[in-house]
Each structure stands twice: as structure tokens, then as C-alpha cells.
Amino acid sequence: VKQLQIKGGSGESTIYVGESLSHLTRYIDAKQTVLITDQNVWDTYKDQLPDCPVIRVGTGEAAKSLATVGYVYDQLMAYNVDRSSCIVGIGGGIVCDIAGFAASTYMRGVPFGFVSSTLLSQVDASVGGKNGVNHRGYKNMVGVFSQPRFVICDADLLLSLPKEELLNGFSEIVKHAAIASEPLLAYLEDAAEKAIDLEKNAIEKLICDSIRIKADVVNRDEKEQGERRKLNFGHTIGHAIEKVYGLSHGQAVSIGMMAAVTLSLQRTGLSQDQADRIAAILKRLGLPVHHPLDGVAIMEAIGKDKKRAGEAIGFVLLRDIGNAVVENLSLEDIGSAVGELFAS
Ligand SMILES: NC(=O)c1ccc[n+]([C@@H]2O[C@H](COP(=O)([O-])OP(=O)(O)OC[C@H]3O[C@@H](n4cnc5c(N)ncnc54)[C@H](O)[C@@H]3O)[C@@H](O)[C@H]2O)c1
Ligand SMILES: [Zn+2]
Predict the structure, then answer these.
(1) What span, in angstroms and rounded, lies between the C-alpha atoms of 17 and 163?
(2) Which residue(s) pair with 292 in the sheet?
(3) 165: Cβ below 6 Å to ligand 1?
(4) How is the chain split among helix, strand and coil, in percent rounded to 5?
(5) From the CB of 93, is ligand 1 less than 6 Å away?
């Protein structure tokens, strides 16, 4: 079991990679713990969960709402949960966001932990202490910074994960490599097929390296004043593509990364060779690298993005693989990259 540490103003978190769901009771007092999970995870893993009260929430982004959080508060009160208790979210990013937000706000904060059960939540969502829910159609509008005491990343849980969900995680792993680690990209190039097959050494190494990159960024900039923005690589255009075309997050971010790569060729001196490496690894993993895009619709969707500050948008570009910079770009600049992908 490998341990990684997050030290933030909002608490400390230890992430255990290679730990097993069956060892959860080593991290909690089962008599004082309430579990939060969703229907799919419950159906697949109910026999492997410790004997604790379980709160089940719905699946999908619509379930990540204040209404669900209200339901969770009701259940916590019914179970007499107080600050001497512990709340454990067992699931993907949606369950972890709901559980983390509910735990951080119920009675002004109850200790909590996660068993992360999707690749995306292992390499991204359960790392970094952001916990939030959607509101009025806007993603993650309401939330807190608060660190889980522990996060268990059990790669065996990924064996039951649908292929498309796995791709969402791979897209974030490529993102981490692109912004911070050429060696991680080189490893992916070596081991892509093993990773897709969930060969244990390969997938655990990818999870570990990916978490280390995000943890390093978060340790330097927990509240996203500067460097943490680099984690948005591919996401400005990606979120717009997700909204406009209804692609999965991983597919949309993959195309968004290629748009950012195209802009990086023009503006920050990324070489064509390195751009080709990123496109090639995305393709090998089964992710799309272009898509017919309507530049106007994409620009409109980006304009509505809550992270937009005035006219200029802090946009993440690459100087090289492993070396990202945030530049202020206009919507028009971004539109031109979208236009080029459309042309290809
Ligand atoms: N807090 C953060 O910093 C942060 C970062 C990135 C993403 N997120 C959030 O994470 C969410 C997406 O998370 P996700 O991609 O994990 O999606 P998800 O939580 O919706 O899980 C995907 C699907 O897989 C199912 N599932 C989960 N584990 C399974 C398993 N082991 N076997 C079979 N099925 C399983 C779920 O029930 C769900 O249907 C988004 O809401 C996003 O905003 C948060
Ligand atoms: Zn993402």
C-alpha cells in the first residue's frame, strides 16, 4: 500500500493506493460510522461493506444537488450522527462530492473519508479537498474546501467499472502527464494496453503518479489562486463540448486538450512532435482527438463559464510536455483553435 499526503489549510488527508475495500474497518470505528453510496455501488459491493448504517443516493449529475444533501442530513439525524461519528463515501466522484459536502457542513463538520470506486475519482475527484454540488444547472456551484481524513483507492473496484467510465479517468491521467510529467506520459506510452486491461502494477502506478501530481499542485495552491488552475487543462473547451454535444467528460476533455494543444503550437512554442505524442496516446487509450465543433456554440458556452473573469480567460497552454502555463486569452483566440479542429 502506497501512502500519499495532502496538507492543506482545510486539513490533512492521507491517500492509500493499493488498499482494499475489505480493510475499511482498519480506518474507522464501525460502531460510529455511516456509509454513503449510490445504487450501482451498493448492488455490486453490498456484501463487502462493513456492518454500518448505509445512506443510498441516486446516480448522475442530477443527484448531486442540495436536495440530495438535505436527504442525507435527514438520514444522519435519524442515525443520531454527531461529531464523534465518521462518514464514509463509497463511490465515484458524485458520491464523494455529496458525502464530502454533507459531512463538512452537517453540525459544522463531521470527520469523513472516501473509498474511491471509479478511476476518475481515484486520480482526480477524491484528491484535493474540493467538495461541492450542482445548483440551478451550474456544476459545482455550492461547496467547501475540506480534506477527507483518508482516501482508499482500491484498483480491484475498477474491474466492475463500465469501459466509458474508465476512459473518463484515463483522460485525467493524460492531463496530469501533459501539465506536469513527461515521464508519466512515457510510461503511458509503454503501458497503455496493460492499463486498459487493468493489469494491477500498471494501473496502480498510473493512479499513484497521477495523485502525486495533483497532490503536489494542491499542496502549493489549495484554494486555486494560481497554480491549481493548471489542472483545468483541456477543461475550458472540454466543459463547453460536454454541454453542447453531450459527450462524456473524458471524451470532451480529450478533444478540449487537443484544442489547447493546437493553441500551444501557435502561442507557447509546443513542438509538433510533442503535440503528436499527446494525440497518439489519447487515441491508443480509445479517446477522441477531434470532433466537428460549432465554434459559435462553443464560445457561447465558454462565455457562460463561471470561471470567466471579464473578457480574458485564464487558459492553460503547454510549453512542452510537463510544462504548463496559464495565459489570458480572448474568446476569439479560443474560437480560432476550435475552428482549426473543426477544419481537420
Ligand atoms: N471534487 C473534485 O475535486 C472533483 C474533481 C473531478 C470531478 N469531480 C466530480 O466527479 C463527478 C464525476 O465522478 P465519476 O466520473 O466518478 O462519476 P460517478 O460518480 O457518476 O460514477 C460513474 C458511474 O459508475 C458507477 N460506479 C461507481 N463505481 C463503480 C464500480 N466500482 N463499479 C461499477 N460501477 C461503478 C456509478 O454508480 C456511476 O453510475 C462529477 O460530478 C465531477 O464534478 C469532482
Ligand atoms: Zn475533469
Answers:
(1) 21
(2) none
(3) yes
(4) 55, 20, 25
(5) yes
pLDDT of res. 3: 97
**Could you give the C-alpha distances from 265 to 146, 232, 271, in angstroms and in order?**
37, 18, 6
Q: What is the pLDDT of residues 254-301, one digit of tens each?
A: 999 999 999 999 999 999 999 999 999 999 999 999 888 888 889 889
C-alpha pair distances (Å), 218 with each of 30, 34, 130: 30, 28, 10
Residue 246 near residue 117, CB atoms below 8 Å: no
Considering every ligand atom shown, identify the ligand nearest to the alpha carbon of residue 116 and give its number: 1
Task: Give the C-alpha distances (Å, rounded to integers) separating 107 from 67, 83, 305.
Answer: 17, 7, 32
Q: What is the pLDDT of residues 139-174, one digit of tens each?
A: 999 999 999 999 999 999 999 999 999 999 999 999
The Cα 300–Cα 331 span in angstroms is 9
Is there an atom of ligand 1 within 6 Å of 148 CB? no
CB 265 within 8 Å of CB 186: no
> How many CB atoms are closer than 10 A to CB 299?
18
| Residue closest to 33 by CA, chosen among 20, 24, 46 | 24
Q: What is the pLDDT of residues 27-68, one digit of tens each?
A: 999 999 999 999 999 999 999 999 999 999 999 999 999 999
Query: Which long-range contacts does 205-210 make (Cβ < 8 Å, 24+ apart)?
Result: 206/123, 206/173, 207/17, 207/119, 207/122, 207/123, 207/153, 207/155, 208/2, 208/4, 208/17, 209/176, 209/181, 209/184, 210/123, 210/124, 210/172, 210/173, 210/176, 210/184
| Strand bridging mode 112-116 / 130-135 | unpaired
- Any atom of ligand 1 within 6 Å of the Cβ of 43: no
Residue that the C-alpha cell 466543459 belongs to: 239
Q: Name the nearest CA neighbour of 35 among 81, 84, 93.
A: 81
Grid cell digits, residue 281: 496516446
